Every structure is written in C-alpha cells, then in structure tokens.
Amino acid sequence: MPDKCRDRERIAAISGAGEVPSLPVSAIRGNLCFRCFSPSDDILKCSGCRRAYYCSKKCQKLDWSLMHKNHCKIFQTINEVEEQKYQASRTWAEYRAYLLYIVRVIRNAAPADEDLRYIVQAQAYCASCRRSAIHLSNRKTLLHRCEACRLVFSCADCSPTPEHSPSICDAYQNFARIENFRIAFFEETGKGAPVTCTQFPSPTRKFLKNCAGWYDYFVKISDKPQVKGKFKLDFNSIEDAITRNGTTIEKDEAERMFMFLLCATDNLTMPLTIISALEDISWDKPQLNVHIVGGTEREIVALGNFEEMLHLIPSLRGLHTTVIGPEIPGGFEGKGHYLPRQNVDCCPTCKADGRQRSISLYQGVYHDFMKASEYRKPDLAVLFNSGWVDGEDAKLHWEPTIVALVAAGVPALFTTYNEGEARNEQTRMKELGAKVLVEAEENKWKGLVPTPEFIDEEYGMWYNNAYRYIIQGSN
C-alpha cells in the first residue's frame, strides 16, 4: 500500500494542501483506490453511496475514518436527487444541464467542500445514452470501460465498446499516464508536482520572446542541455528514434525525464508567463512588485518557483509578491486581513549577490486591498485563470476589481483556460473602457498538464494559463 497517498491528510497538514495530489479521475471512475490510489483487479465499492472505490477493506476502513464518513450520506442524498432526474437517454447538452443542477444542489448543501462537487462532475457515465453510473446501478445494468484508456464507458444496453474517437482515447491515455506519474512522484518525494527551476542566475538576459516554446526554454535558457535530441521540438513526446531504437533502460529514462519536465511546466507556467508579460510592457527596473489577484493556496505554493524571475532577469535585484484573494488561508495572528512582508530564502548564489525575495498576503477582494494603508501600486497585477466574467461572483467581487484596476492604470496580465474564455473576457474588458495592450492569444508558457473538462465540453481538456492578454488603463 503506498504510504504517502494513504497518509496524505497528515502530509497536507504539515506541508500544505497544494503539495498533495487531488483525488485522481482514475479513482473516481473506479480504476484506483480512493485512499492509497493503487490499482486493483478486485476493486471494492462502498455499499452505501456506490461512489467510493477501494483496493482493500483496510483502505476502506481508513478512508471512512479520515474522509468518507463525511461524504457517504451526502452522496446517498445526491443519488436520490439523481434518480429523480432520470432519463433513459440524454444529449450532451441535456447531460450538461443535469450535471450543473446536481452541482448546484451540492454547492447549496456543502458550499466549502470542493471534493464533493468534483467527484460528481467526474463520475462515470455511458458515452451513448449518458446515464450515470448511479442510474445504471439502480437498474442492475453494467458499465463497460474502454480497454485502452479505461476512462470512457458504455452501458450494456447501448454497446459493448464505448464510442469515442481515437484522438479522445489517446488524450485520456496520456492523461492517465500523467496521473500515474504524479502519484508515483508523490510517493517518492512527498511533493505534489516536480519543481525544476534554473539552478544558477544567468549572467546575461535571454528573452523568452526569442523562444518557440518549452523545448527552447529548457535547452537555450534554462540548464537542461540533456533535453536536446531526446524530445520533440513541440515538447509533446519522446523523439521517435528513442522510441524505435532505444534500449528499454533508455526508453524508461527518457520517459521519466519527459514526464518530470512536462509536470514541472505546471509550476513554471506562472513565473514564465509573468516574465513574458514584463517583456511585452518593456519593464526593466531593479525592484519588481507583483500582485497576484484572486490568489488561492495554489498560487502561494507556486511562489517557490518565482525565484526563476531573479535567475532569468540579471538586472533584477529584488522581487516582492503580494497574493490577494478571499480564499487566502487566514490565521494571521492578530494582524487582521494582512500578513506583512516576509523575506523568502533565495539560492546561495542570489544571496551572495545581494538579491532578495519577499511575499505578503491579503485576505479579501482586491478593490478593498487597494483602499488599505498597506497597498502600494504594483508594476504588474496578475490574474491567473480568474474566470472574472462568468463566475458566480462576477458582478459582486470581480467587476469592481477590474474597474479599479483600469482606473488606476495598473498593467494587468490575465490568463484563461481556453480561447473562448479569453475572447469573452477581452470583449467585456473593452466594454468597460480598458485599453488592451496585448490581444488575447495562446500562451507559449501555458502548463502542459491536461485536465479533463467535465461540464463545458464533452471530452475536452484544459491547461493552466492556456491563453493570455494584457491591459493597462483606459482608452
């Protein structure tokens, strides 16, 4: 039994939830154990809710005491609601509407529990009739999984083989491969994802705008010359020559290195996307003040990678980052909503050269922070995947923040998960009178780890910071 996965709550309490992998989709769809994330040929299902799966009675008992006892009865209630909404067949649009309804029910019942919503969104369902696993279980109808990707299903009433295209099957196989790597990486290191910043500061400035993408970054800017010749230039797989002619050891080593660097892009996407924006606005000063707007624990964990900015911009002597958002963890020991500037350790070379990093936190919405005595106008405000137009708090929280940013003339970088979201945001931004410096475009420095889309697009995948645009002031 994998020890770290089994004990992930204890590890999260010590190191932070951002360092612990979330429940895999492969577990939600019955391939892995909910507690230790191990595969099993004889997977056990919770008899109460029929949504949690286990490799052994031992794991089931442990998960009950740590997690599932808080979920099982809620899931049983959700199952009853699902059955009330039963249809013998649905289109994707109908299934999506049904799923959104169930998610709203969960949000009303347990607004703080994202795991509940995620498990229902990612549930298994028939690719033809789109009845859920719960619907089919109630009718003693079996679900057949695709033998290749094991993440797409058909029910016994529809087809013995799930109907999905080869490209979708390949995408899900790749996603499952990445999930398995991240589980193994967590078991080995206790970390949720790899971190691989440039080891030493660069003596000369190498601009990201001169790179085609991640391959160029690792080979030409960072310190990973061993990448050259092993991976394709678009950084989507190992070179064909290694796949065809390499020994088993060479293939395994290349695959592990590729997966490590691929997963590392999900951490490096933040600092590199910021550096790219600084190049766009021609910023070049010795001190950089960045505000991460709408930040969560994910952004706080990622701050460890921000030293890459010191390493890639030789003229930069000091970097201060403030993370602002209502979901920032509290407990500032009597300091109210604001945690004052804290120095962060730098690498020995940066310290010897007198470079410094610091962070501060503000728990609340950004337009309130702008009125606080601690506020200092940043060189760049950054909103990573904020969804500021379409979210439930769009009008109440986000729009006042956007209006305040525009009025203050602050350069602001926005990223989104997909092109449609970016275009929609930019259109609304122009309606609010904002001046767009960089039009919505695909981000060269997006994270390369895919995440399945369960509601907006059937079988779609999204990526961290996939698209970006920059505004400053008003027209």
UniProtKB/TrEMBL annotation:
InterPro entries: Mito_gene_expr_regulator, Mss51-like_C, Znf_MYND. PROSITE patterns: ZF_MYND_1, ZF_MYND_2. The keyword Lyase does not apply. It holds the Pfam family zf-MYND. Residues 33-72 form the MYND-type domain. One of its GO terms (molecular function) is zinc ion binding. Keywords: Metal-binding, Zinc, Zinc-finger. Gene3D superfamilies: 6.10.140.2220. PANTHER family: PROTEIN MSS51 HOMOLOG, MITOCHONDRIAL-RELATED, PTHR46920. This is MYND-type domain-containing protein. It comes from Massariosphaeria phaeospora.
